[in-house]
Amino acid sequence: MYATILPTDTTSPAAATEEFALRQIAGPRDVVLRLHDGAPTGTDHWDVEIDTPLGPPGGKTAVAAVVTFSGPMPPAVREAADRAERDRIGPAMAARATSTGRVLRLWQADQQRKVVIVFAVDQPTLQDGFRTVEKLELLPGEDLALLPGPDHVEIFEVTAVTS
């Protein structure tokens, strides 16, 4: 599976299995996140590395945080970040999930950059998740120097979902 994140007026390079129309809350951007099956077409695509539902099914996600690690991300930093997500952050978020959510981790190999998209039912839930992550203690063997944090975080309203 792969994803594209394109302006709303840009034609999709291929049929999508899911589409999320996103309107930036504190800015001018409107984009469409599309998930596609099959092999990518074009150059502006992201590999979907993780697609994890959180919490009970059936709720409607209303906001999304797009957390960008601009890159290039050296292999040691990527390995450290993947471990942090897999062994520390992911389990903590899953244990706290009381409402519907979803996490997508996207990787762009040619640019060596990553985007994590976190969907939630509302902004307070999203903010609570960020506070939880900030308070987590490092696991044995984790090196803070290899976990520089994101380059930027954008918050979007989910204005439409098509599947």
Written description of the protein model:
The protein contains two helices and eight strands. It is an alpha+beta fold. The chain has a single domain, classed as Alpha-Beta Plaits (2-Layer Sandwich). An eight-stranded antiparallel β-barrel has the order 1-3-2-8-5-7-6-4. Strand 6 and strand 7 form a beta hairpin. The longest helix is centred in the middle third of the chain and has 22 residues.
Features of the shown structure:
163 residues; alpha+beta; Alpha-Beta Plaits; 8-stranded antiparallel barrel; globular
Secondary structure blueprint with pairings:
Layout lengths: L1 E6 L10 E7 L5 E7 L9 E9 L8 E7 L5 H22 L4 E8 L4 E8 L2 H13 L16 E11 L1
Antiparallel strand pairs: 1-3, 1-4, 2-3, 2-8, 4-6, 5-7, 5-8, 6-7
Question: Can you describe this structure in just a few lines?
Answer:
By secondary structure, the chain is α+β, with helices and mostly antiparallel strands. Helix content is 21%, strand content 39%.
Helix and strand string, N-terminal first? EEEEEHEEHE
**Helicity, as a percent range:** 10-25%
Radius of gyration: 16 Å
Spatially, the strands of the biggest sheet line up as 1-3-2-8-5-7-6-4
Question: What would the average pLDDT be, to the nearest integer?
Answer: 91
> Cα distance, first to last residue?
14 Å
- Judged by helices, strands and strand pairing, the structural class is alpha+beta
CATH fold-level topology: Alpha-Beta Plaits
CATH architecture: 2-Layer Sandwich
**The CATH class:** Alpha Beta
> Total helix count?
2
How large a portion of the residues is in β-strands, by DSSP E? Answer: 35-45%
Q: How would a textbook summarize the main sheet?
A: 8 strands, antiparallel, barrel
Low-confidence regions: none
Number of domains: 1
Total number of beta strands: 8
